[in-house]
Design goal:
The complex is a heterodimer. Chain A is an alpha+beta fold. Chain A contains 21 helices and 52 strands. Chain A is 21% helix and 27% strand. In chain A, β49 (946-954) and β50 form a beta hairpin. In chain A, α6 (309-319) packs across α7. Chain B starts with a strand and ends in a 14-residue tail after the last strand. Classes of the chains: A alpha+beta, B mainly beta. The structure holds zinc ion. Zinc ion (ZN) is lined by residues 6, 8-9, 59, 62-63, 65 of chain B.
Chain lengths: 1007, 97
């Protein structure tokens, strides 16, 4: 049928700007600049989807962000996006869209039968259903509801688009490009401020795009163009159109999404940034976000063909689309008359304007009557008729007190109902910023009353609905914001003169009443079009005991759709006030939360995806590990070699080989990731005495000591070895994952508790590569590398270090051990790590050297009962719990955590304590994390006495070993316990956690 | 997201900082001399101020310095920033805004 509703006016429509698009498989013609909604309306497509709960037909109600019903699935495959408002999609060539929430099709939707059961699906349906037996929910409701209620579909493949983030620090950020925002931006720009203006539309102008005003003797859009030209020419001004400001946070931090390519045909988007997220920190903000028109709540007001009057005007003026040929208007204020007059002038028939007001006096109503349009006063639409779209309405008179309808029913056939319940300022961002609202009964809306940030509110958002008021309040906001920043505003700026008609007479009408007080009459009075909340639901919620608007909102789901109730929240409050018989001004408004409109995950993630989602840290030897087939594990941000499988080995075979190489010959580990902190200053030793549980003053230069750190509550926080490089100079090592935390911890105490201590801390983790060689043959290996060095056990004993050169490289060699074997940690400057590793591998060949990874390291240390912080500890383990009382000084007056060891709870004897476990079956490896019980036959829930913290197969011991924490475990050596698992129960015996070489005979290796 | 003026680096985004809880809770000089109740008070008990609240912040992704901030816990407005060795500025706002 072609563009049935398009007015082909050659002045406004270019013949050559046709665009082809597809909706629900049918091809249509639209025009450049159309939204999808405009294109559909032009082609007489009124039915675009189905509602969430009852699957009632849904059409297009509005022309912008407030649209509750016309959600579509946009595009296909990897480009597909669910639930996008047709009113915000700009048409482009070959656009493809389809309805959501329909099955099998929008015309014959089987779930519409839900509508027949509307009495079951009333307020709180979901809450009540959840309270029914769980099995009912799982087997019956959930599968049915899922199929019937599924909204759009998420894409199944990777998002092909590019997204960006950018930060900006404007002097003045203006939100909204209507008359108020443009006026504010102009004043601020002329005053010399750095201005950013964001507007969600493709075109600036806001309401002026459809309101035919005269500003300074020019048509209003010419005025808009002249302002835009001046702002564009100013290098201090940035104009961002197609940009939705969606979040207003603390201290003028605001976030917006700029849609850069969403209006382009798909083939023109490749390689371009699709959406850019703007992070603003503005010195001053001007909110000029406009107003949304409210629907009126009457029976069947959700039928396709029932629209907002201002939106009907917008489609007519912006897109030359007549939303109907036979229209009925329904209003409680004058603004709808402007729409009616213009639709009438466009050639459509306006059959009547039904006005809830008994007295109608304005200039616009007079004009309408003069144009021959019938105005039916003191009346209301009691019902809309028609199956899929509206075909007629019924009109009745209000009773004297307006509490009910009475008298004869008059039926008027029509194919468009244009309604206006008044205008609600778009206070979403204002409310997000912490501002407070108050109800204004004269204007029948909520208005900003208390601003809490460096912010100004202008235009309709402030209740200044007339164009002249918008410009005036915009100029004032721009002036005040500029002055507040110390800029001088010229007094010479003339306020533009606007020619318009006063149209502010409104009489609140939240809902059309019925004949009597039975709330069941309102079962088709839709309040929230997206969630199918009706006036009956609100009555029911109150009857069931809910009074607070926040509770009602949740119970009835009002405002919980993707539109966040832009058209429904205020009507819901109005109806609630009537039900509760309380003035609306006494009800608190609901809270508006970001985002203002839905934001894509891609825009939020920006470039932080895939390998850019987090920092990756690698050592200087990383490339060698990759080349030699290492598999990696993440430790914090570090990628560490996990194990090095050789041809065809299973993981366990690799681990067995690596473990035996260390125990019998020599192995090598890249330990560069260990945290390293230099601690320097005359008070360094005293400082270590305070942060470690053991004593440090007597540690000699050249010696190394193991230390344990606790928090003030006595719980183990980190461990590691620290070497004394000089009297006033120590090198501390930390666990890989805790390096930054430990440095922060040291700084915190130095700066906030002990500023009198003369100590500096510096991270040197990335200054030193650490190559650890371990095994009985490691001395012979090191001697080969450093023939000049005396490695005799008495000259280079355990827990000492030497400084030397190997092959010209400066080295610090620490004789410490995390494996129980003779071991040296060779530290060289980071850049020389690879060279030293190569030297070690080459020299080690004759000893059968094997590189080993973190998993072998874990097994070897577990064989020795050495803890790993974060594995054996979880923030609730004291040194005593770990059987490490030996490292807690009894002599020191004070250290962090000391006082807590004698707290009743910390000193209790039934705490979980570290023990070893040997399974009955030596081949069986306990799962880490398995819960432990003493009585395997105890009734469920069984009393759990601890859990497995580490568990491995030990090739050295030819059996499994495990570490565990068990209540009172240190006194239960030799007792049996059990790990009840899903299909089996594993029995084990409590032992010492030191499984291998308890005497420490192997520390000196081969001589 | 707060905008915090580090006394050394100037105004920066909150993401550069780490929060350090209530300020002016000095670690006792001689913990051993405290009874369990006193020690527990130091360890665990904090005020839950509605209004002007003195708290510690650490510029962990900047100069690595600790400092104090007075923040209105209702509006998140930052009323003062001062160094750890400076006196807490007086703010009359207590118990609300
Ligand atoms: Zn700083």
């Amino acid at each position: 049928m072609g563009e049935f509703n398009r007015i082909i006016n050659p002045d406004k429509i270019n013949k050559n700007n046709k665009i082809r698009f597809t909706f629900n498989g049918k091809s249509y013609v639209g025009r450049k600049g159309d939204t999808l909604a405009a294109g559909l309306l032009a082609n007489n497509v009124f039915l675009v989807g189905r509602s969430f709960k009852y699957h009632r037909p849904r059409g297009i109600i509005a022309a912008g962000a407030e649209e509750p019903g016309a959600l579509v699935q946009l595009e296909q495959g990897s480009h597909t996006q669910p639930n996008i408002r047709a009113t915000q999609i700009e048409l482009y060539d070959n656009l493809i869209a389809s309805s959501v929430n329909v099955w099998p099709s929008v015309d014959t939707d089987v779930s519409a039968i839900n509508g027949l059961f509307s009495r079951i699906f009333t307020a709180g349906f979901y809450n009540k259903t959840f309270m029914w037996p769980r099995s009912f929910w799982m087997k019956l409701y959930e599968p049915v509801i899922r199929r019937a209620a599924g909204w759009g579909k998420a894409p199944q493949s990777t998002d092909p688009d590019i997204y960006d983030h950018i930060h900006d620090y404007p002097d003045i950020l203006v939100v909204g490009g209507g008359p108020a925002g443009l006026s504010a931006a102009l004043v601020a720009a002329r005053a010399g401020a750095r201005v950013v203006l964001v507007d969600e539309g493709a075109e600036l102008g806001g309401g002026l795009r459809q309101l035919d005003r005269i500003i300074d003797q020019k048509p209003s859009m010419e005025w808009v163009e002249s302002v835009k030209a001046e702002l564009s020419a100013n290098p201090n001004v940035k104009l961002l159109s197609r940009t939705v400001l969606f979040g207003y946070y603390d201290q003028n931090y605001l976030v917006a999404v700029e849609h850069k390519t969403d209006h382009l045909p798909l083939q023109e988007r490749a390689g371009k940034v699709r959406q850019r997220t703007w992070h603003f920190r503005a010195k001053r903000v001007v909110l000029a976000t406009g107003a949304h028109e409210r629907p009126i709540v009457f029976s069947n007001n959700d039928k396709p063909g029932v629209m907002l009057a201002g939106s009907v005007l917008a489609y007519l003026e912006r897109y030359q689309v007549r939303c109907g040929s036979e229209a009925v208007y329904f209003t409680n204020n004058d603004s709808a008359y402007e729409s009616a007059l213009r639709l009438h002038e466009s050639g459509a028939t306006v059959k009547a304007i039904i006005d809830t007001r008994t007295e109608v006096k304005g200039e616009l109503p007079a004009k309408a009557e003069a144009a021959g349009i019938e105005v039916i006063k003191g009346s209301a639409i009691s019902k809309a008729l028609g199956r899929k779209t509206v075909k007629a309405i019924e009109v009745r008179k209000f009773s004297q007190d307006k509490s009910r309808l009475e008298g004869a029913v008059r039926r008027i056939p029509c194919n468009l109902v244009a309604m206006s319940g008044g205008w609600s300022p778009v206070v979403h961002l204002f409310s997000q910023s912490g501002g407070k609202l108050t109800y204004n009964s004269e204007k029948a809306c909520y208005l900003p009353i208390k601003i809490v940030q460096n912010q100004y509110v202008a235009g309709s958002c402030n209740g200044d609905f007339l164009t002249s008021e918008c410009i005036e309040s915009g100029v004032t906001a721009g002036r005040e914001a500029s002055t507040a920043l110390g800029l001088s505003v010229s007094d010479q700026q003339n306020m533009p003169i606007v020619e318009e008609v006063e149209d502010q007479n409104i009489e609140a009408c939240w809902m059309v009443p019925g004949e009597n007080e039975d709330p069941q009459q309102y079962a088709k009075h839709f309040v929230d079009f997206q969630n199918d909340t009706t006036a009956t639901d609100i009555h029911l919620a109150v009857k069931e005991g809910f009074e607070s608007s926040e509770h009602i909102k949740r119970y009835t789901l009002t405002g919980f759709g993707t539109d966040q109730g832009k058209t429904s929240n205020i009507n819901a409050l109005g109806i609630l006030s009537q039900v509760l018989k309380k003035p609306i001004s006494e009800l608190p408004t609901t809270t508006f939360r970001p985002p203002y409109t839905p934001v894509s995950y891609g825009a939020l993630a920006g470039r932080h995806i895939g390998k850019w989602s987090d920092t990756i840290r690698v050592t200087s030897i990383h490339d060698w590990h990759v080349k030699n087939g290492a598999l990696f594990e993440n430790v914090g941000q570090w990628h560490r070699p996990w194990y090095y499988p050789r041809n065809g080995e299973t993981m366990q075979q690799s681990l067995n080989r690596e473990c035996l190489a260390v125990r019998q010959g020599v192995g090598v580990l890249d330990a560069s990731t260990l945290g390293k902190i230099e601690i320097k200053g005359p008070d360094a030793a005293e400082f270590l005495n305070l942060v470690y549980t053991n004593a440090w003053s007597k540690l000699g230069v050249g010696r190394v000591r193991y230390g344990l750190m606790c928090r003030e509550d006595g719980m183990v926080f980190d461990d590691g070895t620290t070497a004394r490089l000089a009297d006033d100079h120590f090198l501390m090592t930390t666990t890989t994952g805790n390096a930054a935390l430990v440095l922060d911890w040291l700084e915190e105490y130095l700066q906030t508790e002990w500023p009198h201590l003369k100590v500096f801390c510096t991270s040197v983790t990335e200054q030193w590569s650490t190559i650890s060689i371990a095994g009985p043959k490691s001395r012979r290996l090191l001697q080969k590398l450093a023939p000049h060095l005396n490695l005799a056990a008495d000259d280079f004993p355990f827990m000492s270090f030497k400084t030397t050169h190997i092959d010209g490289l400066e080295c610090r060699i620490f004789r410490i051990s995390f494996t129980g074997e003779l071991s040296y940690e060779i530290n060289v400057p980071w850049h020389a790590g690879q060279k030293m590793w190569d030297l070690v591998m080459e020299a080690g060949e004759e000893f059968g050297i094997a590189p080993y990874g973190t998993e072998t390291m874990h097994i070897l240390r577990a064989e020795k009962g050495f803890i790993i912080v974060g594995q054996e500890t979880d923030g609730t383990m004291t040194p005593q719990d770990l059987g490490m009382d030996w490292i807690v000084s009894k002599k020191k007056d004070d250290f962090i955590g000391k006082r807590s060891f004698t707290r009743a709870d910390t000193g209790a004897d039934n705490r979980k304590q570290l023990v070893g476990l040997l399974t009955d079956n030596p081949k069986e490896v306990l799962p880490e994390g398995a819960q432990l019980v003493f009585d395997r036959y105890a009734p469920k829930p069984m009393p759990m006495v601890g859990h497995v913290t580490s568990s491995y197969y030990s090739a050295t011991l030819e059996r499994s070993i495990a570490l565990a924490v068990v209540r009172g475990g240190l006194d239960k050596m030799g007792e049996r316990l059990f790990a009840p698992l899903e299909h089996t129960t594993i029995g084990a015996t409590i032992t010492s956690p030191v499984f291998y070489d308890p005497e420490g005979d192997r520390l000196d290796g081969e001589i | 997201m707060l905008h915090i003026s580090c006394p050394w680096c100037g105004p920066r985004a909150e993401t550069e900082f780490r929060y350090g809880g209530e300020a002016h809770i000095a670690r006792p000089q001689k913990p051993d001399e405290l009874d369990d109740q006193q020690w527990a008070d130091f360890l665990f008990m904090r005020t839950n101020t509605k209004g002007a609240f003195a708290e510690r912040w650490y510029h962990s992704h900047g100069c690595r310095q600790w400092f104090n901030v007075i923040r209105n816990t209702v509006s998140h407005q930052i009323l003062a920033v001062y160094k750890t060795d400076e006196k807490r500025p007086d703010f009359p706002i207590k118990g609300g805004v």
